[in-house]
Write the structure tokens for this entry.
Amino acid sequence: MLGLFNLREFLSSFVVLFAIIDVVGNTPIVISLLDSGKKIKPLQASIMSFLMFVVFFYAGEAFLNLFHVDLSSFAVAGSIIVFILSLEMILNIHIFNDSAEISKDATFTPVVFPLIVGAGSLTTLLSIRSQYQDINILLAIVANVILVYIMLKLARRVEKFLGPSTIYITQKMFGIILLAISVKLFITNLSTLIKTLG
């Protein structure tokens, strides 16, 4: 399996997931939860996030097959969601609203779900699986989960070090990257569907 490792695919997968998880952009939300007296367990959150990503990565396609939906069709739908998410990041608008109630322990809800492992990241995960080898995506997941752990562990220091302006600029930059990626995913998988139908 390691023989299928490709640095370009790993980096591409890493950047896509990093952008959609938005570790830096989510730092103010984590700080807000901590300030309101919520408890967040960094290690537990990281492990749960990793397990959810891996389970969906391998079982997500089987789940789709139950509804007779192929990966290319899902990737096209996913690219549209990623497109909308990128617009949220760039234009500071909120199209998707999460209204989950938060308990005293915010580790799973809302930090793991839907902040880290949300609809956007899960959709993106299956979408890029149609483009890259599994090993490269799995390693990208590991790398992102490590960053999630660091962010949760050092949230206050990260916010103080980067500052609001840097976080804002980073969010916009990755929003533009996501926009370009969503267009590429849409065109690539749409052409695959057209060939299949042809």
Observations:
- The chain has a mean pLDDT of 83.
